[in-house]
Amino acid sequence: MSKLRTALAATAALGLAALAAAPAQAAAQPAFLAASQMPPSSTPWTATRVFTGVPENGGALCAPYKIPAQNTRYREFHTELDTNGVQITTVARTEADAVKLVDTLRKALAGCGPLLERQNPGLRAVSAAHGKLAVEEGAWVYSLDTADPQVGTTDIHLFAVGRDGRTVTYVRWGQMGDLKDAPLAAFRTTAKTAVNKLW
Fold first, then answer.
1. Phi and psi (nearest 5°) for 140?
2. CA 107/CA 101 separation, integer angstroms
3. Rounded to an integer, what distance in angstroms lies between the CA atom of residue 87 and that of residue 47?
4. What's the CA gap between 168 and 73, in Å, rounded?
5. Is residue 7 within a helix (H) or strand (E), and if so which, with residue range?
6. What is the mean pLDDT of each run of 10 residues along the chain (199 residues)?
7. CA 131 to CA 126: how far, in whole Å?
8. Cβ count within 10 A of residue 93
9. Distance (Å, rounded) from C-alpha 71 to C-alpha 73?
10. Which pTM was predicted?
11. Cβ neighbourhood burial of 97 (10 Å; 0-12, 13-18, 19+)
12. Which residue(s) pair with 144 in the sheet?
């Protein structure tokens, strides 16, 4: 009888442990980049906490309102010299939905320059693709180089869109300057890290 009681107690303990673990597993969320994992800068990066939803104005430069707010979180990054960035991560309902979102974001990033020029007469904007990264289901890197002759400013942005299963992440880096000033190689490393860290 004592052996039976011991076996029943052990079974009950295992059941309680499984129940305790279930909420933790259900609450698991994709991980985000740390400030130190952004491309090197002359002043240190700082990162906000991770917020629920998408940032203001539709969330993503060159892809506004493309990323759904549901099941989405984001973190913003800044340095003291106006270099900034954001990571937005969403978990799609199915893997097929995630594939569609990646395709939508890639098309938006590739066509961003011509679209901005049509929307802003006088602005010069050039988008370029910088290839695919071998990480999980893949990540793709793009740039946007803009110049506003009326204001006299130039800005450069780098983007990455990557996927791990149903999870899609968008990473943006930006500062004043031109493409030649951008840390493209380091950003590729950041993009790969972002996708690898998701799960």
1. -125, 140
2. 10
3. 10
4. 11
5. helix 2-26
6. 41 43 60 98 96 87 92 96 95 98 97 94 95 97 94 94 98 95 96 97
7. 16
8. 11
9. 7
10. 0.86
11. middle
12. 127, 157
